[in-house]
Each structure stands twice: as C-alpha cells, then as structure tokens.
Write a structure and sequence with these properties.
Helices cover about 55% and strands about 15% of the residues. It is built from 24 helices and 20 strands. The chain starts with a helix and ends in a 6-residue tail after the last helix. The model is unreliable at about 715-720 (pLDDT under 50).
C-alpha cells in the first residue's frame, strides 16, 4: 500500500514538473528578452555586497558553468538553463572587472591648503555663471605620493577663469574625499565619482595659473563642446536663464541652470528635458533624418531612383554620433545613441525599427560597457519608459492605424495631441516607482506640463538648436539661438506656472531597495511575459506594496562630521541642531524624510518644543521608542547615561555607558552618518550607519586607507588583522 502511495506521489511530482516545464517553454520566444535582466541581476548582486568578493569566486563559477555546458549541450532545455545562469555570473564578473579596471585612489582625508597641478579635462559653468567647476587629470598634489593621488579631481572657483581644455595649470586649493552617503541607504556620491575617475573634490583659494597647452592630447570634441557653450553664452549674454537651458540641451552642461528654474522644471514633470537622453537624441536625429530626406526628395528624380530614406538614416546616424560626443558621451547619452543607431540601422535594412528585442539588445550592450549604469536613475527611467511605450503601442497599433486611415487635418492634429498625452501618461506611470525611489517626490501635473511644453521643445527649441550648429562655422548662430531662447522662455514660464499649482508635488520618504526590486520584477513580468503568465506580476507587486507599508522613519540622524544632528518626532516633524551648517546634508535628510525644506525647524536654545527639550549641555528627544540625547559637550554625559537610551556626542565623549548606545564624533568619523530607528517590535532603538553597507568596497575611501595601512604593516613584518 505504501509503495502505491509513493508511486502516486512520484507520478504527481513528475506531472507537476512537466506542467511547469511546458509553461516555461511556451515563453521560449521571450527568452532572449530575459538575458539582460539576468545579466543585470548579477551586476545588482555585486553592488549590493558590503565586502569585495574574491576574484577566485567568479573564476570558479565560470569554470563550473563551462563544465555544465559541456555535459548538457545536447539538451536544449538545459542549454537555456545554463545560459540563464551564465548570464547572471557574467553580469557579476563584468561589474567586478569594471570596478577594478577604473580604479582610482580616493583621498583619505582633507588636505587643507595645498598646491595642485594638472591638465584641464573639463570646464562647467556654475549656477547663473557664478564661477566654474573644473576637472583636472594627470594631477599632482603637494605632499601626496603618486600612488595615493587620484586620477582626476574637481575643484570649484567663485569666479570665471580664463582657461581652456587641455591647458596645464596650477592652483592652491583645499581638497576633500568625495562625499559618502549622508545617511544609511542614501545615494553614494563617492561611488558615483569613483566610476568617473574622480577621487577628490574641493575649492580653490586662488585663480588658476595657466601655462601652455599640456602634453596630453585633449579629445577634439571637448574643445568643440566648450566653444559651443561659449558661443551660446555670448549670443544670449543678456538671457542667462535661457542660455543655461540651451546649454543643457545642446552640450549636456547643466551646472549653470539656476536653482529656482531647476526646481520648477522638476516639479512640473519636465526634468527629462534637462538630461540628454533618448528624447533629445531622438529629436535631434529625427530633425536631421526628415530634413535630409526632404532635401533629397526635392531633387528631381532622386526619390524614384535612389533609396533616399536609407541615405537619410545614415546622415541621422552620423548626427547622433556627433551629438553624443558633443554632449560629453555620458553613459545615458551613449545608451540613447546606441538605441537610436539600432533603430536607424533597422530603417536602413527595411526592418521594423521598434521592438522589445531592440530594447534588450541596447540594455545588454550598455551593461557590458558600463555595468555601474544599472544603478543610475537615468538607466531605470529610460528603459522603463521605452519598454512600456513599445508594449502599449504594439497592442494599440491596429487602433491607431484605423484612426489614421481616413483622417483629415483636424483629426490628425487631435490624434497628435492624444499621442502626446498618452505617451506622457504611459511614461509617467512606468517611471513613477523609479522616480520615487531616487528622488522621493513626483510631479502630479507632469501630464499637463508635458502637453504644454513638449510641442515647444519639439518644433521650436530643438530645430533651432540643430540650425545653430549649422550656422556656427559662419558666425550666424545668434539668429537661431535667439529663436530657440523664445521657446525656452515659454517652457520656463510653463514650468513655473505648473510647479506653483497646489499639490504639484507628492513627496514620500526614502524607499528601501527591496521595494524597488519587487516593483521592477512586477514590471518585467508584465512587460516581458506573454499570455496568462503576466498575472505572475501581481505577486511582486503585492510584496512591494507590503514592503512600502513597513517603512520606518528614523528617530534621529547625525552627520559624518557630527556637525549636524536631527530629531524626527513621533508626529513626523523634523528639527535640526542648526539651519546654517551642512546645508546639503540637511536638504538630503529632508528629501529622505519626504519633507520640503520650508518645514525644517531648529532646536530651541532653551526649554521645550513639542517632544524636544534643550539645555546648556544639549537636547533630548522623548519618543515612543525611547529617549535620545544629543550632547554638545561631555558635561551632561553622566546624567544622560542614567536616563537616556541613546547618547550622541557632537564632540568626542571618550566614555562608556553600560547597557546604553553611545555614538560620538569619532564614531561618526569612522563609520559615516548614523540613523537611529525605532525597533520593529517596539522594544527600543536600532542603530544603523553608512559603513555597515559599504565597509570593504574599492570606492570607499576608508577601505582604501585601511588597505594601505595593512600593506604597510605587512611590509614591516607586522601581522595584519
């Protein structure tokens, strides 16, 4: 009897296995689309680790995959399984290789005033032309050994410098390591700069001493870019706001945009206009494509004898490459150019230009070239928007064809407006989770802003921008740039009006990464699976919603240098030790808390303010989870040790308090910014710091310093911890 039950269970097990394999195999046409997803998953795993993995781990995995493939290559099902596993491992390996290939030393501490020299790599105007940011390469830093010197560093000047890209310069400056995250789970600016090859930032004490052009050959497009920017500023000398926007659109340099304009553009849902990506490359190449095709069609007989559409596609491809290099060839621009080039290649080969295979190919190529781009907001938003648009418009293609089949001018105009609205709506919905994850706010009137502003950008600003490029060799670009500035003026007015509407922005607190991963899984299942399998997307969607419902707000925060601390009361109000110090940190904390800057409050000098009480020694927060003290000096330590659950010292405390959590200035210096959270079980407070998440990664300045110390100990014959 037991044997019969066992056989029955075994039979059911085989039946279930066959059913699953059959269901999976019905998706075989979609398998290719999942390759970049698996490749990206390997990259994501690599960057999520707090410790740098040994290279031997990857090598072992690759050998194992090769062995498995050798054994199973005759079975097509197992071949696909091995291919999926291989893509995951390849992604992990690509991320690790890239990380070590771009290695640059990161400054371990502030230098104070030092003499530095190097060759100018890039120049960017600051907000409203109030100085410049200059990046130097091939650098030398006083009192710093060559092996400790970053490949590049960036310094700020309060005044515009009379310098050119490629010049050898020297200056006295104060340098610091790039900023680590300002709170646990926050954006890692240090990692971002590491992959740009920049290991230090700072400010200049003096003007630059420019010498002759350096020995290093500067890429020609960097000088062209700077000259184009200069011509734009000269042509629009009395219109700095418009010149800054046009510079962003044509050269990718956004530093000169005023803070008020940038905020209005973001809050109106028009931020995608400022970053050169698929929108700009598409408009630029589209203008060139249709202009060339029109000109060739006007030549008698050419349209009948020659494939002028293919000629136009080749010209547009060349224009896309020119625009990419002019805009600095950033990763988002490279990605957009790659996708555009594939589209134009499809046009040249008489193939369908838009498909999910195109998106998958472009995504895989970008991740192979720059695996770190997986972490960027631009990667998430651009591929989410394009994927969603292709899926939706592919489903709606018969309806659109029927509407255009017998339509007059009025109906076509109506369909155009409908297309703008629908495109904006689809892109907004697809990118909303990524916008909220990266920026903690979303424009609720983005649809209105795009409907009003996009026609101006598409039919006035970008065409005039293309025309200005053609006129620059003749010194006539001013006419086109003036026309473009009128369009930009209209866009800015729309942005400020839309942003000023009530409830224009919805703010949220900082999302956990797991919530975004669940949302991404839901999106990919809905977009890449076919048939009833798409219903699987509901599971990760529910999980993401549940994860978001469990978000906890920190009760207290302390900056890395212990110059700024904040309390978050049970009511959600945020109060700071200072509203003058550490402005960037304060703004970042408010953003992570989902609060506008005007809601920030200062701790009282004396007395009580809601749940906060302050005295000469410091301040105390009475929260439901416990009592947190922030001490200005050591004087109040003994009393705090008796009554507080967490003691934070903005100066070195050098004392212990058994059974209590003590954090002082030295702890913050070693471990980065701290956040104190209520325990999920309601039993006290939990402490997190930045160093826990990135302790042993190459882009961590502290890790590089520890490695250097370990090597020195080893060389002296001392044991290494």
């Amino acid at each position: 009897m037991s044997a019969e039950i066992f056989n029955a269970d075994l039979s059911k097990g085989h039946a279930l296995k066959d059913a699953v394999l059959t269901a999976v195999w019905t998706q075989k046409d979609q398998f290719f689309l999942w390759l970049p997803v698996l490749f990206g998953s390997g990259i994501a795993l690599y960057f999520s680790l707090s410790q740098e993995p040994p290279a031997s781990l990857v090598i072992t995995a690759l050998i194992a995959i090769a062995a498995l493939f050798t054994v199973t290559y005759k079975d097509i099902h197992k071949r696909w399984l091995i291919a999926f596993i291989a893509m995951f491992v390849f992604g992990f390996a690509a991320a690790q290789y890239r990380t070590h290939a771009v290695f640059t030393p990161i400054l371990s501490k502030k230098t104070g005033g030092v003499d530095v020299s190097g060759i100018i790599d890039s120049i960017e105007d600051k907000e409203e032309r109030r100085g410049q940011r200059v990046t130097l390469s091939h650098v030398k830093i006083q009192r710093l050994a060559p092996e400790e010197t970053p490949r590049k560093f960036r310094i700020s000047f309060k005044k515009t410098q009379d310098i050119q890209i490629g010049q050898s310069v020297s200056v006295r400056a104060n340098l610091s390591p790039p900023s680590p995250p300002v709170l646990p789970g926050g954006f890692d600016f240090q990692r971002y700069m590491y992959f740009k090859g920049i290991g230090a930032t700072g400010f200049a004490y003096s003007n630059m001493d420019a010498k002759e052009t350096g020995d290093v050959k500067t890429p020609v497009f960097k000088n062209i870019r700077r000259n184009v920017s200069r011509k734009i500023n000269e042509a629009l000398d009395h219109k700095p706001h418009q010149a800054a926007i046009i510079n962003a659109l044509l050269t990718g340099q956004r530093g000169a945009i005023s803070e008020s304009d940038a905020n209005a553009i973001r809050d109106a849902g028009l931020a995608h206009m400022l970053a050169i990506s698929g929108l700009h490359i598409g408009l630029f190449t589209g203008i060139v494509f249709f202009a060339v095709r029109l000109i060739l069609a006007l030549i008698p007989g050419w349209a009948l004898k020659y494939p002028i559409k293919k000629y136009a596609a080749l010209c547009a491809m060349a224009a896309a490459l020119f625009y990419m290099f002019l805009a600095g060839a950033t990763v988002p621009t490279q990605r957009a150019t790659l996708m555009t080039a594939i589209v134009l290649l499809a046009v040249f080969m008489d193939r369908s230009p838009l498909s999910l295979r195109l998106v998958a190919t472009a995504a895989l190529a970008v991740l192979i070239i720059a695996p770190e781009s997986l972490l960027s907001a631009s990667f998430h938003m651009s591929f989410a928007a394009v994927t969603a648009l292709i899926v939706v418009y592919e489903a709606m293609r018969p309806w659109w064809a029927a509407q255009y089949a017998h339509s007059g001018m009025i109906k076509r105009a109506s369909l155009y407006v409908l297309g703008i609205c629908l495109t904006s709506l689809i892109a907004s919905i697809a990118t909303a989770p990524f916008v909220l994850f990266h920026f903690q706010k979303i424009a609720l009137y983005g649809l209105l802003g795009n409907v009003l502003a996009m026609p101006i950008l598409s039919f006035i600003v970008m065409p005039m921008g293309v025309l200005s490029f053609l006129l620059m060799p003749f010194g006539l670009e001013g006419y086109a740039l003036q026309a473009a500035s009128f369009g930009v003026d209209g866009i800015l007015k729309i942005a400020h009006e839309v942003a000023s509407l009530d409830h224009a922005v919805w703010r949220v607190s900082l999302w956990p990464t797991t919530a975004l991963l669940y949302f991404t899984a839901a999106f990919l299942c809905a977009a890449l699976l076919k048939g009833k399998a798409r219903w699987l997307s509901l599971l990760p969607l529910v999980l993401s919603t549940f994860t978001l419902s469990q978000i906890q707000t920190p009760a207290a925060l302390i900056s890395q240098n212990a110059k700024l601390a904040a309390f978050v009361e049970d009511s959600g109000a945020a109060s700071f030790s200072s509203l003058n110090k550490e402005r960037f940190v304060r703004q970042s904390w408010l953003s992570a808390l989902g609060m506008p800057e005007d809601q920030a409050r200062k701790w009282p000098k004396e007395g009580e303010q809601d749940n906060i009480s302050c005295g000469p020694q410091g301040c105390r927060l009475h929260s439901r989870a416990g009592i947190i003290d922030v001490l200005k000096t050591q004087a109040g330590f003994i009393q705090s040790c008796k009554t507080a659950d967490v003691i934070i010292g903005m100066e070195p405390l050098r004392r212990k308090c058994p059974g209590k959590i003590v954090i002082d200035k030295f702890d913050a210096f070693r471990n980065g910014a701290y956040a104190i959270y209520p325990d999920r079980k309601g039993k006290g407070l939990v402490v997190k710091n930045v160093e826990q998440q990135r302790r042993s990664r190459p882009w961590n300045a502290g890790f590089q310093k520890r490695q250097k110390g370990n090597i020195q100990k080893k060389n002296r014959g001392h044991p290494v911890d």
